[in-house]
Design a protein that fits this description.
There is one protein chain. By secondary structure, the chain is mainly alpha-helical. The chain is 61% helix and 5% strand. The protein has three domains: 99 residues, Tetratricopeptide repeat domain (Serine Threonine Protein Phosphatase 5, Tetratricopeptide repeat, Alpha Horseshoe); 67 residues; 73 residues, Membrane-bound Lytic Murein Transglycosylase D, Chain A. It has eight helices and three strands. Helix 2 packs antiparallel against helix 3.
């Protein structure tokens, strides 16, 4: 069977489907014919009419009508086809006009302005929070620098004192920063079962060396005091004001 015969049979089937009201089937058959025979103007014309009148697709209808006009510019139905194209365009225009009229632009603009105002408020709040955090960070940075400088000063002071530079010591080797409230220095009997030690409460000005000399009569016994009280000493074997330390009973001295 020739292609033309096949196309003719398909055309008859499409027209029968159109007459029976099965417009989707008719459109599919005509579309197949157009694919097989792109220059079949009659198939394109009928397909355009179905798109316009039955399937409510003015865009597709215009495409088929324009193809028909290109294929048959001198056909008797040119005016009819051009009129159909005009009607399709009017339908499209009315559809878009209807859609546009259904849009409440004032409400949309109002909602957008409201959302913008909310966003601006949120940005303002977050900006304020960020500024507070930055200010707090600056304050902490200053405090850190102050504490660091103070710590370095004390470390240098302790190094000088431990090195024997008494002239560099502005204050006795007691870290009052670590101490509980100041008490007067006292030395009392511990009452321990061995009776090897008695107690002394550190006061400002006490050092292991000064206590070894004062209470034991020999500054060289500073290491002995350090070993006995190593769990009570501050950084670099410093005495902490208010702490109670143990003093050997050997060679006792009046506190």
């Amino acid at each position: 069977m020739e292609k033309s015969e096949i196309a003719e049979l398909a055309m008859q089937e499409a027209l029968s489907a159109q007459a029976a009201g099965d417009f989707s089937k008719a459109a599919d058959l005509l579309a197949d014919i157009v694919v097989a025979q792109p220059f079949n103007g009659i198939a394109r014309l009928h397909l355009g009419i179905i798109y316009q009148d039955s399937l409510d697709d003015p865009f597709a209808a215009i495409g088929e009508f324009n193809a028909y006009l290109r294929l048959r510019p001198d056909a008797e139905k040119v005016n009819l086809v051009e009129e159909r194209i005009k009607l399709c365009k009017e339908t499209i225009g009315k559809t878009y006009a209807s859609l546009a009229s259904d849009v409440d632009y004032d409400s949309i603009v109002k909602d957008l302005k409201k959302k913008i105002a909310e966003l601006e408020k949120l940005v303002s709040e977050k900006t304020g929070q960020i500024q507070l955090i930055e200010a707090e960070c600056d304050s902490l940075k200053v405090e850190k620098e102050r504490l660091s400088a103070d710590l370095n000063r004390k470390i240098k002071l302790l190094d000088n004192v431990l090195a024997g530079d008494e002239a560099a010591k502005p204050d006795p080797l007691v870290l009052s920063d670590y101490s509980p409230p100041t008490n007067t220095g006292t030395s009392t009997n511990t009452g321990t079962s061995t009776d090897k030690y008695w107690e002394h409460q550190v006061v400002r000005g006490d050092t292991l060396t000064s206590l070894a000399q004062k209470l034991l009569g020999d500054a060289a016994r500073v290491r002995e005091l350090r070993d006995i009280n190593k769990d009570k000493l501050g950084p670099r074997d410093t005495l902490i004001e208010g702490t109670v330390i143990l003093i050997p009973r050997e060679l006792p001295a009046n506190p």
